[in-house]
Amino acid sequence: MTTLKLLSVASEIYPLVKTGGLADVTGALPAALAAESVAVRSLVPGYPSVLAKLAKAEAVQTFADLLGGTARLITGTAEGLDLFVLDAPHLYARPGDPYVGPDRLDWPDNAFRFAALAQMAVRIGQGRVPGFVPDVIHAHDWQAALAPALLHYAGGRRPGTVMTVHNLAFQGLFPAHLLTVIGLPPASFSIGGVEYHGAISYLKAGLQFADRITTVSPTYSREILTPEAGMGFDGMLRTRVAALSGILNGIDDAVWNPADDPRIAATYTAQAIEARGRNKAALQSRLGLDSKPDTLVFGVVSRLSWQKGLDLLIAALPTLLEHGAELGLLGSGDQELEDAFASAQSAHPGRIGCVIGYDESLAHLIQAGADALLIPSRFEPCGLTQLCALRYGAIPVVARVGGLADTVIDANAMALASGVATGLQFAPVNAQGLNGAIGRTAELFGDRQAWVQMQLNGMATDVSWRKPAHYYATLFRNLVAARAAAR
Ligand code: ADP
Ligand code: GLC
């Protein structure tokens, strides 16, 4: 098989910069695609955390004025990733979160920060950077989504373009007057272009002009065609349905491996699953929960936002407590939810333990120590924590939406009888539905045999990138072949 060259463009990449699952995906896909003879270079902004880790760095081009300041395009490697890093201090030399300042508000120049990233992708795509001319550009989310549009309007030879939507809620909306500043022609400001309710939408730019669109699960790829889940883009997406498909995410099974995980209290395998108990004890102690080995412990690892439905969990806490369960939560995000979980903990010490913040190690311990992982999302393009839960023998209890619906086999009567259940799904996604799911979980927890069977089924599920990477590689190759045939 000939090697296909792919330029992946994203604002996050694990382990260099991460706010959520996007980073996990862009960080893990390159190695998984290598096994499919796809050679990936990842273009990322030169945040301080990225530049600090860069090895074999070499500036390949310099720019006297890239949207208001000097910039350099650097090649290098970090943590096994082959990178193009856009070093533009006026845009990226800021510590902390990649999108928001210390006041938690979007950086006022985000339009420029991510237009610059897309402009660099275009340069590389057009073969104007010696040493790497991609066959395909893979743009992730709105931060990279201008690239397909800029390439379209530039005309001339260009690589194939694939736009992956990780979350339709983030649309990259900016004022119309920036249009030409960011490099788009006046004619692009139309309904068939990048215009969205009087503004520019970077995400729409990608959705409109990419050769192929993917989302991160098959169910989400259908949901977004409906007004309920389309977030205003469903009509536009219906016009592009022939180009749209869903490919499930995987997880990095080297980073997430209970048999060999330095971040947990005791490693374990499906063959000796009792050893999980030591992680449960460590988790209870870490979160100040009563140390009762037989108590059902629900875990949560999540951004605290409307999407994740954790306000529903606040409403369902009385039910969880009535069932005698404990809750261990790790999350950060909306102030209101952070406060609500902090006060729930004060009201129920020993029963509810919350860490408000971001903690990679604790995320692993929760997966290894909790009996069940709660994910009551209102919508979920894919979701990764339920995949980690499957691998770690924590039973995922999930809303029946998006990728959650695609990855968890609900413990209904038939699935239990056939011995294939891996978790619980609930619908409708409201407090009542969640209450019901908590009750069902407690009941199943009382049936040791059924419970352990579910754990073992989950741990035997392939949640790696192997299959998804094959689907991506096939999509890229088919695209290249289709474009060659059309020439
Ligand atoms: P999303 O990207 O919508 O936040 P995903 O489930 O796709 O949801 O990915 C979330 C990723 O972020 C997972 O790797 C999860 O373990 C991690 N994560 C989320 N919140 C935290 C947190 N507070 N601390 C550590 N890791 C977190
Ligand atoms: C987004 C989605 C999440 C998905 C992740 C990676 O953050 O909210 O469902 O798993 O991207 O694709």
Walk me through this protein's architecture.
With about 475 residues, the protein is α/β, with parallel strands linked by helices. The chain folds into 2 domains: about 5-250 and about 465-485, Rossmann fold (3-Layer(aba) Sandwich); about 270-460, Glycogen Phosphorylase B (Rossmann fold, 3-Layer(aba) Sandwich). The chain contains 19 helices and 18 strands. The chain has helices at about 20-35, 50-55, 90, 110-125, 140-145, 145-155, 200-210, 220-225, 235-240, 275-285, 310-320, 335-345, 360-370, 385-390, 400-405, 415-420, 430-445, 450-460, 465-485; strands spanning about 5-10, 40-45, 55-65, 70-80, 80-85, 135-140, 160-165, 175, 195, 200, 210-215, 245, 295-305, 325-335, 350-355, 370-375, 395-400, 425. A hairpin with a 2-residue loop joins strand 4 (about 70-80) and strand 5 (about 80-85). The longest helix has 21 residues, at about 465-485. Bound molecules: adenosine-5'-diphosphate and alpha-D-glucopyranose (GLC). Alpha-D-glucopyranose binds near residues 167, 381 and 384.
Any descriptors?
single chain, 487 residues, alpha/beta, Rossmann fold, 2 domains, nine-stranded mixed β-sheet, six-stranded parallel β-sheet, 18 strands, 20% strand, globular, binds adenosine-5'-diphosphate, binds alpha-D-glucopyranose
Short description:
By secondary structure, the protein is of the alpha/beta class. It has helices at residues 21-34, 48-53, 89-92, 110-125, 141-144, 146-154, 202-209, 218-223, 234-238, 276-286, 310-322, 335-347, 360-369, 385-392, 402-407, 413-418, 431-445, 448-460, 466-486, and strands at 4-9, 38-45, 55-63, 71-78, 81-87, 136-140, 160-165, 173-174, 195-196, 199-201, 212-215, 244-246, 297-304, 326-333, 352-356, 372-375, 395-399, 424-426.
